[in-house]
Design goal:
- By secondary structure, the protein is an alpha+beta fold.
- The protein is built from 15 helices and 16 strands.
- An eight-stranded mixed beta sheet has the order 1-5-6-11-10-9-7-8. It has a five-stranded mixed beta sheet with strand order 13-12-14-15-16, with helices on both faces.
- Strand 3 and strand 4 form a beta hairpin.
- The longest helix is centred in the N-terminal third of the chain and has 18 residues.
- The protein starts with 16 loop residues before the first helix and ends with a helix.
- Bound molecules: zinc ion (2 copies).
- The site of one zinc ion (ZN) has 7 residues, from helix 7.
């Protein structure tokens, strides 16, 4: 018989780790809704053009990493490699710009990139992201950064660094690009092959390169913030002053340009020293032109995405996660008791109490062993004697205390204990 395995670079997420995932998702939902962000569920597949248009033809994602295939009608379909483009496609398609601005959304779910498998990188990976569309007010940029920090604090991740930058807009970035190309032109052949390719198509991304040689070679490169036009400069300065007002501990990182073509003005990244080379926990920025690119009206917008796997990794190292366990294990001896046990189990489940029973009628001893293994808080024991007297024995496994209660008082007994 063939034994199947998951595809390369794709992982199953099982209990108990799944409880960490649920905690992260729940916390995100709680924090984001305080800021007025509502959930939007866009599909996982889109026309390939949606991603080429937004991410940019000459990016690594579009060139090498997309899961693209033809459907039965010969249309080119792509599994989403990121979450912003589908939200923007939906925003334009459903004319959400007719609603009051800004419209604020969050999403969570799997993304797909055909990357070289390496530690902490998956081909199906999960992101939680937010998008706010409809205003260029830097208050929104600040709000999003504060929301991100509140979320990371609430799930209990410490030792993070918040890096911000502005990469200008279509008015001022060409000047910067020129200056950068000028600086690089004499020595580009000394850079890594990737950077040499970027020099032609996407020179700003050379600033992002993590290759040691490249980092050394770009010392003294012109800074994008020195080239901002007045509007972009004002926008960035206003954001920084808001962040200071709100006690937000930012660091300016002039090299942070973000990998995707659609970013304008504010960009930011949250990094952790605990993660090694793949140290980005969350990243985002403005994309003031993207809605227009998709055929909508001029609509400045900003968003970020969080990498679930990295947050899980950070939490695993520090979190004392309470793994849920059954409240009550109903142990029975004999056919009549088994039936009474089933009826009782259902009554308790209706009250929202997690009940486990034993299957295939093993001995009492092995039922108790199982209750222990499951970390049940209580065992209820029902046998012929109990049926006769109408009382059941209970035992609390944590301290071994025990007692008896009338069968019909059992639901009350657990309700009184806050279950
Ligand atoms: Zn390089
Ligand atoms: Zn500008």
């Amino acid at each position: 018989m063939t034994r199947y395995t998951a595809l390369k670079g794709i992982q199953d997420i099982l209990p108990p780790e799944i409880y960490l995932w649920q905690k992260i998702e729940q916390t995100a939902k709680n924090v984001f809704s305080v800021y007025g962000f509502q959930e939007l569920r866009a599909p996982i597949i889109e026309s390939t053009d949606v991603f080429i248009r937004s991410i940019g033809e000459t990016t690594d994602i579009v060139e090498k990493e997309m899961y693209t295939f033809s459907d039965k009608a010969g249309r080119s379909i792509t599994l989403r490699p990121e979450g912003t483009a589908p939200v923007v496609r939906c925003y334009v398609q459903d004319r959400l710009y007719d609603l009051p601005s800004p419209q604020k959304f969050f999403y969570s779910g799997p993304m797909f990139r055909h990357e070289r498998p390496q530690k902490g990188r998956f081909r199906q990976f999960y992101q939680i992201g937010v998008e706010a569309l409809g205003t260029s007010d830097p208050k929104l940029d600040a709000e999003i950064l504060l929301m991100l920090r509140l979320f990371l604090e609430q799930i209990g991740i410490k030792g993070l660094s918040y890096e911000v930058n502005s990469i200008g807009d279509e008015k001022c970035r060409p000047d910067y690009k020129k200056a950068l190309l000028n600086f690089l032109s004499g020595k580009i052949h000394e850079f890594c092959p990737d950077c040499q390719r970027r020099y032609k198509y996407n020179p700003l991304r050379i600033l992002d390169c993590k290759v040691k040689e490249c980092i050394k070679l770009r010392v003294g490169a012109p800074k994008v913030t020195d080239f901002l036009c007045n509007e972009c400069k004002e926008h960035f300065e206003e954001l920084l002053s808001l962040l200071r007002l709100l006690d937000f501990p930012y660091v300016i990182n002039h090299d942070m340009v973000r990998g995707l073509d659609y970013y304008t003005r504010t960009t930011f990244e949250v990094t952790s020293k605990q993660l090694g080379a793949q140290n980005t926990v969350a990243a985002g920025g403005r994309y003031d032109r993207l809605v227009e690119e998709f055929g909508g009206p001029p609509t400045p917008a900003i968003g970020f995405a969080l990498g679930m796997e990295r947050i899980v990794e950070l939490l695993k190292a520090s979190d004392r996660l309470e793994i849920p366990a059954p409240k009550v294990f109903v142990a029975t001896m004999g056919a009549t008791a088994e039936k009474e046990g089933l009826i009782l189990a259902e009554k308790l489940r209706e009250k929202g109490i997690w009940i486990e029973i034993s299957y295939a009628g093993p001995s009492l001893r092995s039922q108790l062993r199982k209750a222990d293994k499951l970390s049940a808080a209580y065992v209820l024991m029902i046998g012929d004697d109990e049926i006769r007297t109408g009382k059941v024995k209970w035992k609390r496994l944590a301290d071994g205390s025990q007692g008896e209660i009338p069968l019909d008082k059992v639901p009350e007994f657990f309700e009184n204990q806050g279950y």
